[in-house]
Amino acid sequence: MNDAAPLSAAAALATRIGKYRWRVCAMLLAATTINYVDRQVLGVLAPFLQDEIGWNEIEYGYIVTAFQAAYAIGLLCAGAVIDRLGTRIGYAIAIGVWSLAAMGHALAASVLGFAFARFMLGLGEAGNFPAAIKTVAEWFPRRERALAVGIFNAGSNIGAVLAPLLVPIVAAAWGWQAAFLCTGVLSVAWLVTWLLTYRTPEEQPKLSPAELAHIRSDPPEPTARLPWRRLLRHRQAWAFVAAKFITDPVWWLFLFWLGKFLASEYELSLAKIGPPMIVVYLMADVGSVAGGWLAGRLLKRGWNVNRARKGAMLACALCVAPVALVTQIDNLWLAVALIGLAMAGHQGWSANVFTLPSDMFPRHAVASVVGIGGFAGAVGGMAMSLFTGAQLESTGSYARVFLIAGIAYLLALLVVHLLVPRLQPARLEEKPHDV
């Protein structure tokens, strides 16, 4: 009886406040899922397109790097554009561009053709996370943001699960070109729904006054626009940039090289590569939500934002560390378990890292900070892709690559803690002394 009463009270409070903001979060989840289906198609088909198109490891590294270069450029611009245009129009433009680019892969027949298609895909997909993070900052109070980010970020794993589940079936039935074309239908459906339904909280007629008050329950924030040079004067911005630069390359590694690793190390065919990749990304999905949930749970237990966020990040970093040993394992499913644990750790880490800008910056600056950090992560990813391609071409071994992956998160957490020991908000209205 004692446990039921608090639960009933919590349910009644949630009912009074309303849940429309979670419908918005569901839209972000759907967009992120589509985003990752689009980008993961190549990762699933890579071992087999390599034979058909005739690229080597270094050339595949160039194709991956083309995506990351465009993603870096796009992220550097996307945050500022979305801050200026707003999430409704900015998000619509981004998904329109990446939908056309995803379908454009079907026309590619050479290394250069795939590199161009990947470049255009990267430009469009760069808008997803700045727009989604800004939407969360607009629709959720601070105490709910890590969970909301964790939920929509789970779409990256859902998309990565759907790709190895569906792509081999579509490719076997209608050819690899059809696998790229099919993603356009999902994108168009989401785009139409977004434009018809999305409004800011103040403009949304279906939002109750109680829920709007809940969303705006944090202290008032300044609204003046800030140039990047002012944002980059603050340690808080560099903490986010450093976290993304050090750890994003590991996610790029998993995303674009996992299929090749499993196919080469365990001699998996196109028909057999799907189940291990699905297990890995299902584990990552759990990690995404769990990482956001853990931070929120620690906050409810009375921890301050600094301890809760960094405590959750430490737990996630420790989950990634054992992946350094994966090249020493002969058993496929044990290797899948280690990689899945690492990817779960990354996604939980990411849910908390993506919340850092809204912890430390006002809403109007969040998308710009996320864009700058995403640029740094993509640059790090480019370096990792070139390094991985060169390593495989010269040694045929993933050992050094996975060693780097295993230590990256603990290093990143150390750097974040040194830059922002207390995770204090940036004082944007004053001349900064924290450079």
Verbal overview:
Belongs to the major facilitator superfamily. Phthalate permease family. This protein is mostly helical and 435 residues long. The chain has one domain (21-200, 227-419): Growth Hormone, Chain: A, CATH 1.20.1250.20. The protein has 19 helices and no strands. The chain has helices at 4-17, 20-53, 57-85, 87-104, 111-125, 128-139, 142-153, 155-174, 176-181, 183-197, 209-215, 228-231, 235-266, 274-300, 305-320, 332-353, 356-360, 363-394, 399-419. Helix 13 (235-266) packs parallel to helix 18 (363-394). The longest helix has 34 residues, at 20-53. The protein is globular, with a radius of gyration of 21 Å. The model is unreliable at 1-13 and 430-435 (pLDDT under 50).
Write the layout of secondary structure elements.
Elements: H1 4-17, H2 20-53, H3 57-85, H4 87-104, H5 111-125, H6 128-139, H7 142-153, H8 155-174, H9 176-181, H10 183-197, H11 209-215, H12 228-231, H13 235-266, H14 274-300, H15 305-320, H16 332-353, H17 356-360, H18 363-394, H19 399-419
The termini sit apart by 54 Å
Please tell me the CATH architecture by its name.
Up-down Bundle
Question: How large is the radius of gyration?
Answer: 21 Å
Number of strands: 0
How would you sum up the major sheet? none
Structural class: mainly alpha
State the shape.
globular
Order of secondary-structure elements: HHHHHHHHHHHHHHHHHHH
Q: Helical amount among residues, as a percent range?
A: over 70%
* CATH superfamily membership: MFS general substrate transporter like domains
Query: Could you tell me the mean pLDDT?
Result: 85
Count helical runs.
Answer: 19
**What fraction strand?**
under 5%
CATH class: Mainly Alpha
CATH topology: the name is: Growth Hormone, Chain: A
* Number of individual domains: 1
Poorly predicted runs are: 1-13, 430-435
